[in-house]
Task: structure prediction
Amino acid sequence: MSAARLGRLAPSRWATLPAVSYLIIVTQLPFLATIYFSLYSWNMLYPNRPMRFVGLRNFVYIVTDPLFRTAIENTVIFTVVPAVLTMLIGLGLALLVNRLTFGRGLAYSLLFAPFLVMETVNPIIWKTMILNPVYGLLTYGLSVFDLPPVDLISNEPKVAIIIMITWQWAPFMMLILLAGLQTVSQETIEAARMDGAGTWNQFRYVVLPHLVPYVCVGMLIEAILILPVFGPIYVGTYGGPGNETTNLMFSVYKTLTEQYQIGRAAAGGLVTAFMTTAVALGLLSYVRPFMERN
Amino acid sequence: MRRLRAKALSGLTFVVAFGLCFPIIWTVFTGFKRESDAIAFPPTIFVPLTLAHYWGALTGGYLHYLGNTVIAVVSSIVLAMALALPASYKLAFFPGRKSNDLLFFALSTRFMPGVAVIVPLFLLYSRMGLIDSLFGLVVIYTALNIPIALWLMRSFFRDVPFELVEAALSEGAPHRVIFLKIVTPLSKAGFATTAFLLLILTWNEFFFAVNLTGQGAGTLPVYMASFFTTEGQSWARMSAAAVMAILPVLLIGWVASRSLVKELLAGAVK
Result:
C-alpha cells in the first residue's frame, strides 16, 4: 500500500484525544491551580480572612523556615542514599541469581516479595517485628552476640527509614540489572576468557560496562518514585522524632491537613515537583546517549 | 573445587533470598501465634498456633476496605485502558511527528509527585462533596494508570506485525474491527502484564488515598495505617491483618513476576 493511501486510512488524530484530555484535566489543571494557590496566603481555619496575594513569599518561607529546610534536606537524603544502596545490593543479588542453575523461580519469588509489600505495611513489619528495642528480632540478634539493644526508631530514625525504603526497592533494581546480565554477550565473555581475563576482569571490563545503561535507567525510575516517599514516614515515624524524618511530601501533608495553610502547602508541592523534575532531567540527560546508542 | 564453589554460591543465594524475605515470612508466622507468644522474648517458634487472628481480620473491617480497594483498582484499570487504548493503537501503528512528545508528556504526568496537585484536588473535592468517595479516588487513579497503560500497550502492540494491520486496512476493515479481531488477540500477554503492573501500583497507592478518603471509601493501605495507630499493641492481630492486606498482590506477583519482568523489559527497550 502506498504511504499516501496508508496515511489517509490511518486513524484520525482524535484517537489520542481521550487519554490526553483526561490527563490534562486531572493532572495539568490542578498543577496550574497549585501554582496559583502558591502565590496566595490562605488559611482555611479562618474562613473570614480573605485570600491575600503574597507573591513569592510562600517560597521564601519554605527555603528559610527551619522545618521546611530540614524537609528539603531529608528529601535529598531519603532519595540518594537508598538509590545508591539499592544499586549495590541489587547488583549483588542480580549477580548471585544470574548464576543459579536451579531453583530460579523460588529465588525470584523470595527476592521479589518485598517490592510487593504496600508502603504502609512495610514500616509496620520493620517497626514492630524487627526494630522494636524490647522484643524485636534485631534486639534478639544482637543479644546472641551479647550486644546491647539498639533503638533505631528513636535514636537513628533516618537509618530506620532508609532501611525500609532500601528493603522495598532493592528487588526492583535487582530485576532491572538481571535483565541486563541476561543480555551480556556470551561470545565476548568467552573471548575475554580466551585472552586470559580472570573472573574479576571479565566482570570489570565486559559485564560492568554493559550494565551501565541499565543502572542509569533503574536509578532514574527509582529516583522519581522514591523522592516522594510517604508511607514509611507516615506510619514508621510520623516525621519524628521532632522533624528529624520529615520530608517534603510529609511536611506538605501536615501543612495541608493539620494547619490548613493552603498557599504554603501548594508552594511546598511545587518545590517537590521542581526537585523531581531536576533529578529526572539530570539523570535523563545522562541516560539518553546510552538509550540512543542501543 | 570449582563445582564446590558454584554449589556454595547457589546455597548463599538462597540464604540471602530467604533472609530478605524473612520479615514477610515472620509476619505470616506471627499472625498464627497467640498474643503473649507474639511478643515473647526471645522470639518463639514452637508455640501453639491459632487461626483466630486471621479469622478476626476477615470478620473485622478488612472486607469493607478490601471491597473499596478492589472497586478502586478494577474500575480505574478498566477506565484507563478504555481511554488509553485508542492512543496506544494509533501511536503503535501510525506514529506521527508528535508521537514522542505525546508519550513523554503522558509519562511526565505520571512522575509528577502527588503533592504537586493535592492542594487544588483537596479543595475541589471538599467543595463538591467528593472527599471520602470511591468515585473521587477512581478519577485520580485513572489518571495515574493512563500513562503506564498508554506506554506499555503501545510497545506490546508494536509486536503485532504491521503487515496484518495493513492487509486488513486495504480490505476495507475499520479500525475498530482490526483492533478487536487482530491486535487484541495477538497482545493477550501484553494486556495481562499491563493489568498486573497497574494492579500492583494502584493496590498499594497511599498518598492520595490517605488525603482524600477516610473510613467510608478508604483502601487497604489507609486501613493498615489506621490499624497501626489504633491497635499497634496487638502484634499477632496486626500481623494477620497486614498479611491479609498484602496477600492478593503477593500471590499475583509471585505467579506473574517472571513473565511480568520479561515482558516489561522487552517492552521498555523497544
Remarks:
- Chain B has a mean pLDDT of 87.
